[in-house]
Amino acid sequence: RFVHHAIARHLRRIPCKLFVGEREYTAVVLDLSVSGLFVQTHARPRIGARLRLQLNPTTAPLELTVHVMRAKQVPQSLMAV
């Protein structure tokens, strides 16, 4: 029997840095929950990749190791919107 427990996602706009290999990208956490977070960035890491994410890079940074579970790509025509 499958029981689905809804996990609350909290909308936020938290600037961060995302490290894909040795390359650093600016990014924004758009929502988060106890099970994960959604990050908006120009980086295109592969599904399953293990990355470093640094929150609040200008103050006391919190560095996390994260795994890419899924990706949503925005069409080029909407990138500037």
List the helices and strands and how they pair.
Elements (H helix, E strand, L loop, with lengths): L9 E11 L2 E11 L2 E6 L8 E6 L6 E6 L14
Antiparallel strand pairs: 1-2, 1-4, 2-3, 4-5
Write down the overall mean pLDDT.
85
| Overall outline | globular
Quaternary structure annotation: single chain
What is the total tally of β strands?
5
Computed structural class? mainly beta
Query: In DSSP terms, counting alpha (H) and pi (I) runs of 4 or more, how many helices?
Result: 0
Strand fraction: over 45%
Determine the N-to-C terminus distance: 43 Å
- Low-confidence stretches are none
Radius of gyration, CA atoms, in whole angstroms: 14 Å
Structure in a nutshell:
With 81 residues, this protein is an all-beta fold. It has strands spanning 10-20, 23-33, 36-41, 50-55, 62-67.
Question: Features of this protein?
Answer:
globular; 5 strands; single chain; 81 residues; five-stranded antiparallel β-sheet; mainly beta
Describe the model:
The chain has 81 residues and is mainly beta. Helix content is 0%, strand content 49%. The protein has strands at 10-20, 23-33, 36-41, 50-55, 62-67. It has a 5-stranded antiparallel sheet, with no helix packed on it. It is globular and about 35 Å long. The N and C termini lie far apart (43 Å).
